[in-house]
Here is the input.
Amino acid sequence: MDKRKLLQIPKGTESFELEEAYIHKKIVGGLLDLFYRWGFLPIETPVFDFYDIYSNVMDRQARDRVYRLIDRDGELLMLRSDITLFMAKQIGLLMPDSMHPLRVCYADTILRYQKNEDISHNEFFQAGAEFIGKDGLEADLEIILLLLSSLKLLGIEDSMLHIGSRNLFKLCVGTPAKNTEGPVRKQLLKAVRVRDWNRFNKVLEENELNGEGRNFIELFSFIGTGKELKQMFKSKYSGETSDVKKEVEYLVSIYEYLEELNFADNVKIDLSELGGQDYYSGLSFKVYLKDVDTAIASGGRYNNLLSSFGYNAPAVGFSIMLRKVERVKKAAGQFKKPDVITVLDDPDFLVRYRKAEKLRNSGRIVCL
Here is the structure.
């Protein structure tokens, strides 16, 4: 045996110190309790599943992040890298249409190879919620509001929610790109995500596309309020198709609802926010925190994903990368480890036990 391995853990994994583990468990419990109070019931997904089932619904970047292994029967398996994907298959297999709409939640570990975001961690903990079987504004708002309530529970007050639309991108850029599901679309999508407009123009030129796509650079550069988007779109894009107008109005409506509910200070419409997963079909969003390089939460609408597993239903959801938050934010007061742990010193064990029970029933932490 290599004795060094006794003192090490595999690259990309992590372990918890005692107090850190306590806080983590309390946070997970607090989030799940919040989800339950919103009517979301827990769902459990397997740690690994057949790779071939998911390979067609993941883009190349997502496939490259998957850990694969072979079972005893020679089947190619993948470790759980995205709970939403594994959940989609489970919903497709187990849930009858009569259960619509369905609200589910989860809190579990995922494993994925991280190349660009965080090379020191490949193991993450996702907590999230999914609303299945209902399309439209109210379902999208419910998920966004649950996400914002989750961040509030975690004591996060300085985050910023960026809201965009994958469908708006498809409506605007799909026409000049023509092959909206092919490599050209993906190159344009990547350029918009990183706001690289020189690259965006270069892709259009390399593929001999007309200048229509360039007209949307200012649109997808937009970051601001609903009112600002409405004014900019009216002054510069009033001649666009009704579908494009409808999608912009939809984003404005979401912002206005959030503004009415006093969340506007932590929300921006960001039309370059197109979602990190290829299965998003409409609304997409991410949450950013000042001290973290990448998003701490993400989500959106994925109306076509479940049909890949034989279950045709609209869906919207989010996930919080909990360990990213825990590494940079101090736990909210209700999650902190108690400063005082009572230790009884009576010589009689039975007396100590009875006293301890009374104190525990009052909420104290007591050691015998």
